[in-house]
Amino acid sequence: MLALEMHRLAIILHLVVVVAGAIRVLGHPGDAGGVTPLVHFWEKALPGTPVPEVIADLVHKGIDHSPLAEHYPVTDYGARDVFFDTNYAVAGDDIKRKKGWQRCRRCAEDAKAGFYFRETQLRVGSTMTFSFRPAMVAPILPHAVAEKVPFGDLPDLLATFDIAPSSAEAATVADTLSQCQALPIDGEHKACATSLESTVQSAMRMLGTAGTDDDDSATTLWAAASALPSTGLPLQPYVIQAVTTLDGDRHVGCHIMPYPYAVYFCHMTPAMPTKVYLVSLRSSISGGGPAVTMAAICHLDTSNWQKAHPAFEMVHTQPGGVPVCHFMSYGNLLFGEKAVAATR
What we know:
Blueprint: H1 2-21, H2 37-45, H3 53-64, H4 83-88, H5 95-102, H6 107-112, E1 116-118, E2 127-132, H7 143-146, H8 154-160, H9 168-181, E3 189-193, H10 196-207, E4 219-224, E5 233-245, E6 252-257, E7 263-268, E8 274-283, E9 292-299, H11 310-315, E10 324-327, E11 333-339
Antiparallel strand pairs: 1-10, 2-5, 3-7, 4-11, 5-8, 6-7, 6-11, 8-9, 9-10
Helix pairs in contact: 2-10
């Protein structure tokens, strides 16, 4: 026990050193000039793509209010998105995946809240009725700190974050580790990432966009996130004001998992094409709130999804029918590839 406590104190001390050495983190308010390794990394990996505000907030939160010093309850929160829906809906014999599908306690709730919709609904002037629950999202740890946190060692991790081994939180953390360690389903690429840098790198590997320093025609990444408040959105009609199609037909979805700090589960299935949009919406009710811009992904091929998937009932289709779309929840990320024009 003493050794675990010493390890925890060493990680906290390392966090203090990292924060003290950070001149600027993604435009952190009040910081002086200068570029941190994270800023340099993002600008090189995603040139021309600004860091989504929600992601910058979670990065700042990981420095200003680190989960190593402040306890964040580990719950099956709304920001889990449809990771369980699309990932566990695929037919197969993987017992862990079937267990995950059975544990999708909120799938029916999401369907009732208008979570799924048809691609044909994404047109200016169209009205959509949906809602999002408030999201309790843990902060994103600095990469140097996340590397020192015992991600795969459950007892060590529980001790580091003062989580009782017999608690519901411990069971949720163990389940997240199980999902991260489970084998991918047929044709799927997957990875769990514990920092923003490793999340971007996972997406780059899946999309094959690494490129080389002397190849100025290599493809590069873009990233998108929904700009909705962490307090969620009430169930009401929203009018679409603008729709923008983002590049590519293969996309990586990175979903925050229940954990003491932000852990992203990134996955894609190259053989199943997708389309991604940025959708600007405003409540059609007077005083219903400001406009929000949501990232939406449409799954064009659902032929191997389970027939019991609630999305099919919601959009009145069946496996292999019309594309099934959904918005990305708070704090989650979408990645795609874009061609970079040669400069020679």
